[in-house]
Predict the structure.
Amino acid sequence: MAAEVTCLTATTVFNLDPIKKEVTCVSERGPETFQAKAILMATGCRESTRSALMIPGFRGQGILSTNEAQQYIHDLGVLPGKRVVILGSEDVGLSAVYALGKTDARVVGMVEEHSHLVGSRLFSLPTIVLRRVPLYTWHKINLILGNSSVEGVEIIALDQNGDPLPGTERTIACDTVVVSGKFVPENALPRQSGISLDERTSGPVVDQYLQTEIPGVFASGNLLRGVETGDIAALEGEWAAHSIQKYLQDSSTLTGHRVIVTAGEQVKWIMPQRFLSDASESPGFLATLRVNKRIRHGQIICGSDGEIWRSGKFRLLKPERRIRLNLHKWPKQILQESVELAIVT
Ligand SMILES: Cc1cc2nc3c(=O)[nH]c(=O)nc-3n(C[C@H](O)[C@H](O)[C@H](O)COP(=O)(O)OP(=O)(O)OC[C@H]3O[C@@H](n4cnc5c(N)ncnc54)[C@H](O)[C@@H]3O)c2cc1C
């Protein structure tokens, strides 16, 4: 698609009217309203703050998100601190260790509530393994110490249910805490404009064309369900562009019998949450789900009264990894109003 796109930087959309397909923005040019035939929302996601994670202690200087820490290092060339504790061991936390490796700061601990490193083992090599960063799995930060600035953290071990084990508290001296991970979709615009959100993903409800429940309004990237790596967001953007092109040529091609897809036993969320069962194309890579906990030898079943589709067996399903489903293998004609996807072992 030949695109001559005008990119308005330093411009914030503060209102979206999905029916009129109007967006209202503000910038140094003042308020402006644009009307379109279709809208794509791709506002990404953000990390949960320390307050949202309910970590007690004063609001001292030196508590940062990974994003802020990386902005200090890459954009401003400023060292956020000398002794850093990172909360969370997802890939983004590992990327914070990597970025801090370019400074004089020392990462003196990575605290992870799960029983294992959540990020990729490969990425852990140049980050925590070679740099000998202590990884405290099955631990959480109990308290941030210091009044006007961070002086340390108190960490505590967790039992298998995630409950703190009294008596296991220990203190790590540090001047910076990087709170990483626990991403939430940046869903202020769809929420404000009445576009249906899925309470499990916190992103807009979409079908396999990444079209929301309002025709002509699409969503892609991390807004859909929280963080994935950049390549996934790019592929989704490409697919959304493909869908929008189809919509602009003939909007009736993106309509049809709409099946509600729900997350069943052991499924944390599934996306897309709607499925146009008589649609001609479905991108396999877009249908994804996550599980609640580690499951060995699991199999995904999709129940649709009488007709059950089963995936191949998975050796290990991990909550921190996205599971890809190939929609082409689903029952061709689902006549029911809804189907449920569940994991059986
Ligand atoms: C700290 C951090 C580190 C990461 N490191 C990596 C990495 O090393 N490798 C990797 O593959 N992925 C990484 N990711 C993930 C990667 O950034 C994303 O997968 C990818 O950028 C997602 O693209 P997106 O288009 O969904 O959202 P984003 O790239 O986040 O883009 C969303 C855009 O929408 C804008 N926006 C939001 N609301 C409004 C509004 N109301 N008006 C106007 N504009 C708005 C934002 O300013 C932003 O520019 C990282 C993410 C974070 C947060």
